[in-house]
């Protein structure tokens, strides 16, 4: 096994290759995106019903109660119990589906025929399912540890901001004037630090998860390979993320402006038509975004941990 150091131009090649792969089989990929969204909605529906039910009852009873989050309601045990159950089910049920995405991309890349339901095939592979769960649990523990360290380091500013928000809530209930909350400088330092930590950690997560999806690699070994791959490409990865964010941010703004103009024109005809157009356009973007994101991560793995020598011109280094 070798872990390669890739160039920034190769990283932009991941984006180009993602669009290329999407064009090969858009029907199956959009269908897989739709199935993924439907599964996510089915899992989250009980939680959403509880949250919005609590919100509706809070509004119907005359507003929020001081010190009580409206979406949690008065029964905190019910809320956190359902939240915990949803989290456990997602950790158990979603890893095979994510593995199915990467296996489907590998099949498309090889020129094999695929269908939208191929994302469910790993559910028939017990070893892969358990491997995905172990890796997801391992990464979740790391995320909790990292976020916990940040919370401990910047607890003071967060508590101060929370107290300002609670004071504003109390003022709103009593009819007193509200003071806009002030974000302390430490809050922005924590935000920038989280960005610099979570971007590499996300790269480790997706490299390792693609590894356990496409090879019978254990969770700890996949994590090690992902960490080595991230370390050997860290500076270039941060530069790529910054440049890609700026470019796609500009593209996103242009798309939003065009869509907003379209919705405004439709609103002149009918407000209902405009609302329907917003919903349809949102889901169209979402259905295209999922396949492109997964494809980009697949090509990142292929360049760094896979056998894609062409897209990684620099010499491979033994892990």
Overview of the structural elements:
The protein has 319 residues and is an all-alpha fold. Helices cover 78% and strands 2% of the residues. The chain has a two-stranded antiparallel ribbon.
Distinctive features:
319 residues, mainly alpha, 9 helices, disordered C terminus
- Category from helices, strands and their pairing: mainly alpha
**Major β-sheet, in short?**
2 strands, antiparallel
Radius of gyration: 23 Å
Report strand %. Answer: under 5%
Biggest sheet: strand arrangement: 1-2
User: pLDDT below 50 for ≥5 consecutive residues: which ranges?
Assistant: 309-318
In total, how many beta strands? Answer: 2
| Structure annotation, total helices | 9
Domains counted in the coordinates: how many? 1
Mean pLDDT: 83
**Envelope shape:** globular
The CA-CA distance between the termini, in Å, is: 6 Å
